[in-house]
Amino acid sequence: MANFYLSLFLFFALFLGHGVVELQASHHVYRNLQTSQSTSPNQPYRTGYHFQPPKNWINDPNGVMIYKGIYHLFYQYNPKGAVWGNIVWAHSTSKDLINWIPHDPAIYPSQQSDINGCWSGSATILPGEKPAIFYTGIDPHNRQVQNLAVPKNLSDPYLREWVKSPKNPLMAPDAMNQINTSSFRDPTTAWLGPDKRWRVIIGSKINRKGLAILYRSKDFVHWIKAKHPLHSVKGTGMWECPDFFPVSTYGLNGLDTSDMGPNTKHVLKVSLDDTKHEYYTVGTYSTAKDRYVPDEGSVESDSGLRFDYGKYYASKTFFDGAKNRRVLWGWVNESSSVNDDVKKGWAGIQAIPRKLWLDKSGKHLVQWPVVEIEKLRVNQVQVPSKLLKGGSVIEVTGVTAAQADVEISFDVSDFKKAEKLDPGWTNPQLLCSQKGASVKGALGPFGLLALASKDLKEYTAVFFRIFKGEDNKFVVLMCSDQSRSSLNSDNDKTTYGAFLNVDPVYEKLSLRSLVS
Amino acid sequence: MKAILFVFPFVLAVAYFPISQCQNLPLIEQTCKQTPYYGLCVTLLKSDPRSKTAGDVQAIALIMVDIIKAKAGGALQHIEKLKQKYPALRVPLSACKDRFNAIIIGDVPQAVEALTKGDPKFAVDAANDAALEADSCERGFSGKSPITQMNKLNHDISIITASIVKTML
């Protein structure tokens, strides 16, 4: 870990070096999976400690849970190639969320109700510590239906084998419920109401209205659709991967999904099919009405709050009872062309898991990479405080630049120089795209140049800019500028950005960067 | 007697249908209006017999994906011929071969599965990638491409397809 304190505005360059890997999580080679394509031996882009299988396509994290002290991660996987298709639930387990053991796929087509695909879903731990998985299956008529699977053998701590209910599908579109057969997917973790009935929501839409279809059950097998959705919003399009969970109004601890005590609020997150962004709101779950009501002032659209303002989709949380925290997983897709994906033989990674909790303001969530990541740290490099002159670049040496855990903070003193924030600049991503790392500013850009080549022809800039906003308050913009990340013109070099909820006058701007 | 009376209205109804309905033009025109290459879109679909019986946008989209596949296959054959004719262009032609191959083995199957099973965003991605592959192939010649028209056609067909699928999201 590199630890430094700086003042003023500048860049650090982490030069791309070759050498011994310093941060390496393990994911042992699959023995059993058949693949039709072999991967190229030259693999400069594989990550050091992000979750990814040895080869092929992955997307949504599924059924995330902990059972008998072991973490389970299932995920959408194509056993046949590096594009989306032939989807099954691949399965890995871990004791620490960082080092993983792969198992055979847990769920793959085997019944009429999933013969054409085993799509996303979630795990619920039923009373008596009995996991149950709900997932979307594609039936012989290519309709989206919901199926139940439970472990074959509860005494296998790895839960390698699963059996499906002979009653599947337990939920299906029909003439009565009028559910759209191609817009009915991604069941959530279920929660138990005060009436002892289970509830689950499934993403859907009616024309342009996104909705979370609500189903209830007494026995987890017979499900009845509620007359109204848990929540819906006009104009948002299809809701994929909904996630609905309680958060505590004090402290950093997570809550069991069925918790609804006095000190709880609820969060509803949806992934928007239209825009490939997610948004969430904080609100109240009314058990009497079985409805979710976002708090006053919530933005319900692509412009709403996100767990992650970068390339991030299909996220899913679970309650980790072992450490009393809610943990967030999410999928990051490739920026490369399909031609490159096929050549390298893989596509997609899972983002670093994060702990998630409600901010003390009660208005948004806060997250931090799970503490277990720090186990991977070796070879600490400390750089003493430096005063940074405008336009300068300082190289950080002694680190393997492609695998680093960086903590840095910036202390700004001369705020008078800050340029004014144009009131029309409301889209931070657009602002970062227009004012990239090479555009000079008054207070900024300052930050990191990560994954930089020796001649600085390629680099990924993660940086801040400070503007003067209204009422003499300062606005901090954070950007992840990929416009120069690669000389390969095929790559998606979208720039991302967000306004930060921090007052730079009173707080240092601190940045943690996991480079892998 | 009853049987004859029952049949009659059907016969009359068919006779009154304007001829354009047989070509499924309203669906084709409506769909193609959502794309940046209306003329090309209509021409391609009208010349494909399957479009006459396409019932919805999904069916139209699947036809377009099949056209991408056919054109990419044609591109591969043409590239093989050009490799013999222009040995000096071997390197960019080989790169193009890889790209059109990726369209056929990667983008097309992904798009077909996404459309038939109801997760169209993956079909949008696949179609957009197909356009990118054609563009990248063209760029590989640094301005001296022998297949500019072909690459543009493949690009445009892919963009049409992506636009059509986006309306299904």
Automatic annotation (TrEMBL), chain A:
<feature type="domain" description="Glycosyl hydrolase family 32 N-terminal">
    <location>
        <begin position="50"/>
        <end position="369"/>
    </location>
</feature>
<dbReference type="Pfam" id="PF08244">
    <property type="entry name" value="Glyco_hydro_32C"/>
</dbReference>
<dbReference type="InterPro" id="IPR018053">
    <property type="entry name" value="Glyco_hydro_32_AS"/>
</dbReference>
<keyword id="KW-0732">Signal</keyword>
<dbReference type="InterPro" id="IPR023296">
    <property type="entry name" value="Glyco_hydro_beta-prop_sf"/>
</dbReference>
<dbReference type="InterPro" id="IPR001362">
    <property type="entry name" value="Glyco_hydro_32"/>
</dbReference>
<keyword id="KW-0378">Hydrolase</keyword>
<feature type="signal peptide">
    <location>
        <begin position="1"/>
        <end position="19"/>
    </location>
</feature>
<dbReference type="InterPro" id="IPR013148">
    <property type="entry name" value="Glyco_hydro_32_N"/>
</dbReference>
<feature type="domain" description="Glycosyl hydrolase family 32 C-terminal">
    <location>
        <begin position="372"/>
        <end position="513"/>
    </location>
</feature>
<keyword id="KW-0326">Glycosidase</keyword>
<dbReference type="InterPro" id="IPR013189">
    <property type="entry name" value="Glyco_hydro_32_C"/>
</dbReference>
<protein>
    <submittedName>
        <fullName>Uncharacterized protein</fullName>
    </submittedName>
</protein>
<dbReference type="InterPro" id="IPR050551">
    <property type="entry name" value="Fructan_Metab_Enzymes"/>
</dbReference>
<dbReference type="InterPro" id="IPR013320">
    <property type="entry name" value="ConA-like_dom_sf"/>
</dbReference>
<dbReference type="Pfam" id="PF00251">
    <property type="entry name" value="Glyco_hydro_32N"/>
</dbReference>
<dbReference type="GO" id="GO:0005975">
    <property type="term" value="P:carbohydrate metabolic process"/>
</dbReference>
<comment type="similarity">
    <text>Belongs to the glycosyl hydrolase 32 family.</text>
</comment>
<dbReference type="GO" id="GO:0004553">
    <property type="term" value="F:hydrolase activity, hydrolyzing O-glycosyl compounds"/>
</dbReference>
UniProtKB/TrEMBL annotation, chain B:
<protein>
    <submittedName>
        <fullName>Cell wall / vacuolar inhibitor of fructosidase 1</fullName>
    </submittedName>
</protein>
